Structure formats: structure tokens, C-alpha cells
Amino acid sequence: MNRIYFDNNATTPLAPEVFDAMCPYMVEDFGNASSIHWYGQRAKAGMEKARGQVAKLLNARATEIVFTSGGTESDNAAILGIVEAARGESKHVVTTAIEHPAVLSTVKALERRGVSVTFVRAGASGLIDPADVAAALRPETVLISVMHANNELGTIQPLEEIGRIAQERDIYFHTDAVQSAGKIPLDVHKMGVDLLSLSAHKLNGPKGVGALYVRRRGSNVDLEPIIDGGGHEGGLRSGTLNVPRIVGLGKACEICRQEMAEESRRLAGLRDRLKDGLLVRLEGIHINGSLEHRLPNNLSVSFPGVDPPTLMAAMSDIALSSGSACTSGKPEPSYVLQALGLPAEVASTPLRFGLGRFTTQEEIDYCLNRLVETVKRLREMGRIAAA
Ligand SMILES: *Cc1c(COP(=O)(O)O)cnc(C)c1O
Questions:
Q1: Do residue 168 and residue 280 come from a single domain?
Q2: Mutation test of ligand 1: which of 7, 105, 148, 151 has the most ligand atoms closer than 8 Å to its C-beta?
Q3: CATH of residue 70
Q4: Which of these, 222, 215, 219, lies nearest to 191 by C-alpha position?
Q5: 239 class by beta-carbon count within 10 Å (0-12 exposed, 13-18 middle, 19+ buried)
Q6: Using CB atoms within 10 A of its CB, is residue 273 exposed (0-12), middle (13-18) or buried (19+)?
Q7: Distance between CA atoms of 193 and 195, rounded to whole angstroms?
Q8: Shared domain check, 302 and 239
Q9: Based on the structure, what is the number of domains in the chain?
Q10: pLDDT tens, N- to C-terminus, the chain (387 residues)
Q11: Which of the residues 99, 271, 277, 309 has an alpha carbon 20 to 30 A from that of 221?
């Protein structure tokens, strides 16, 4: 059986060039990047090259990149680090209701420690209104954290406008760009962000490595480290650096930067082929989230009346995600789709199609035919059962 991978918003396969770049750093160039001897310096050189490659993807400086263990750690380091360093008796954070759990759970942990948090709601198309962010600000607001692209919907938030609001009010601005990094152009200055999280395994790099951009132009960002130790990464993230993975992250960022223009056109074309085919051939389906402000590689479709786990089980050769949290094996409506105020039958029946570097047109056409046939069959079975 041929298997098809359509879950590139969850993770991506390692690019072969990335694997090749990493290998020497696991064998010959194994040194500790902090050591001053030849072995250490070889490792350090590989790591510093990667720092430059990551910075270039963001239009940042190499000195503004801190390596972490991934997107989750970067989000934690940014949010906890800013709130911890902030002065004042009462502290307030503004974020959104549709963030990744790496942000949501972190701010909820802060709430339990007495920090107040406002969760700005998204509109029905999955977009945050900058005016709602502005309206949520208080004198004691220390941080705004708004994701760039949503992991379930692929919708892209208007960061430039939010960045301007943050700058005017002199409030730190963090974005979780784990889904958008490598997919669409990122420019930390245009977006007006002080901190940005990204993760290698979402852009054909290795798992367990990521980066946090920390602005170093103008006044310094006041950030308390969440991991203390030997003072690596300018004291912001201690621990011996994972050079092979960092090298992989750098190489993956470089490939993305070089291929982005062409690859995003290709993926958007394939995505639209899937979308248009579904809309023509199936009735009563719902495309979730704005199509205009959206990553090129993502499509979220709800099939009211069809249970996503049943649909996925009937197409077990295609790796998809329902985009909804699974608590104790029971599918729950997606909190993201619920936050958009979508009806329950839409919020509880999404499938997320995450296209990637290795997706082909043949795979799209195969998936389209399988889906149409399977949805029709399941709907027919439902009708018979109900009769
Ligand atoms: C995957 C993801 C994360 C977590 O990144 P890890 O590297 O897996 O820890 C955070 N935010 C978003 C939006 C993601 O999609």
C-alpha cells in the first residue's frame, strides 16, 4: 500500500540535504561548541553558520538568535521570560484564544500565579482584529503574544498592525511563527516583533531544535532566562548546544529561503486543486478560515455529518489530522474552530490537509478521489442507519 503524508502542519520529513549537513557534526565534528580547542571550534563554526542562516530567514542579525529545544521552549522562554523580568505589582498579558497549546498553557500557568491574561477572540474567518488587541491593553500590560499563522487553520494574522500598536504603547510583542517560518516571507522589522519563535521540524529540519529571535536593536529586551546554568547563548539559554540539530535547523532555513517563492506557488496551486475539486464534487462542506490570509500549504475542511475519526480510519493510507484535540480517546470539537463561533457540526468535523515539500499532484488527485468516494459512502451509511 502506498502511503501519503498530508500532515505537514504537525511535522515534516527531514530534507535529505539537511540530513547530509548534520551527519559530520555527529561523528567527526562532535566537539563541545564552548571548548577552545580545535574540536570545539569546529563545532562552534558549524553552529555560528547556522545562526546566520536562521537570522537571514527572518531579516534579523545573527546575534539576535537564541537556540532552543523547539517551538514549545521558545514560546515558554519568551512569555515567562518577559513576565518574570517585568517590574510592577500587577502584570497583564494579551494573547488570543486560538494560540497553540505551547502559548495557551503557558499563559494559563501564569494566570494561576496571579498574572491576568486577556484572550482576544478571532473572527469567523480565523483572523484577529488589531483593534481588539488595542482595546485589551491596560497600563499594566507587559506583553502581547499573537501567533503568526494558526496551526489548525493556516490563517495569517495582521502582525504589522499589531506590531505598530505594541510599539506605540511600548509593550513587548512576541509571535509564535512556528507554522509560517519557511513558508512565507518573515521580516522581524516589518512585523514589529521583539520576540519570535520557530521550530526546525515544521520546516523539514530535525525535531527537538528551534530558535527564539530576541531583538537587539534599540533598547534591550528585558528577558529572564528560564534555564540557568553555564551561561550559554548570552546567558539566555544554558546547556551544551546540540550542534548537529542546530546545523540542521540552519540548513533547513537556508533551503526554505531559497525555494520559498517557487515552492509556495506550487503548494498553493496543489492546495487550490484539492479545494476546488472538493467544492465541485461534494455538497455541504465548509472551508474553515480565510482563504486570502492563509499559508500556501494548508487547507481545513469540515464535513458536517461525517465523524472525522471514522473518515480517517476509512482512508488509513492517507495521514491526515482532524485538527482537534483528542482527550482520553474521545474526539472533542476543535477549540480553535469553536473560538471562531462556528456551529458545532462544523467545529467538530474538520480535516486538516498539510501539504509539504514532497507532496505531488498525483497524491492530491488520489486523495481527492478517495475523499469524495469515502464521504459519499459514509453519508449514505448514515442515512440508512437513520432511516
Ligand atoms: C508545532 C508548533 C509548536 C510547538 O513546536 P515544537 O517544536 O513541536 O515544540 C508551537 N506553535 C505552533 C504554532 C506549532 O505549530
A1: no
A2: 151
A3: 3.40.640.10
A4: 215
A5: middle
A6: middle
A7: 6
A8: no
A9: 2
A10: 689 999 999 999 999 999 999 999 999 999 999 999 999 999 999 999 999 999 999 999 999 999 999 999 999 999 999 999 999 999 999 999 999 999 999 999 999 999 999 999 999 999 999 999 999 999 999 999 999 999 999 999 999 999 999 999 999 999 999 999 999 999 999 999 999 999 999 999 999 999 999 999 888 899 999 999 999 999 999 999 999 999 999 999 999 999 999 999 999 999 999 999 999 999 999 999 999 999 999 999 999 999 999 999 999 999 999 875 454 455 678 899 999 999 999 999 999 999 999 999 999 999 999 999 999 999 998 888 888
A11: 99
Amino acid found at 98? I
Asked if residue 108 and residue 209 are part of one domain, the reply reads yes
Tell me the three cell numbers of residue 290: 480565510
User: What's the domain range around 214?
Assistant: 16-254
Q: List the one residue out of 196, 96, 100, 185 whose CA is nearest residue 146.
A: 96
Per the CB < 8 A criterion, the answer to whether 353 and 298 are in contact is yes
SS3 358: coil
Claim to verify: residue 147 and residue 281 sit in the same structural domain:
no
Which residue in the list 253, 256, 326, 367 is annotated as catalytic? 326
**In the annotation, is 326 catalytic?**
yes
E strands present in 161-275: 172-176, 195-199, 210-214
Q: How far is the CA of 383 from the centre of ligand 1 (A)?
A: 39
Give residue 89 CA to ligand 1 midpoint distance, Å: 31
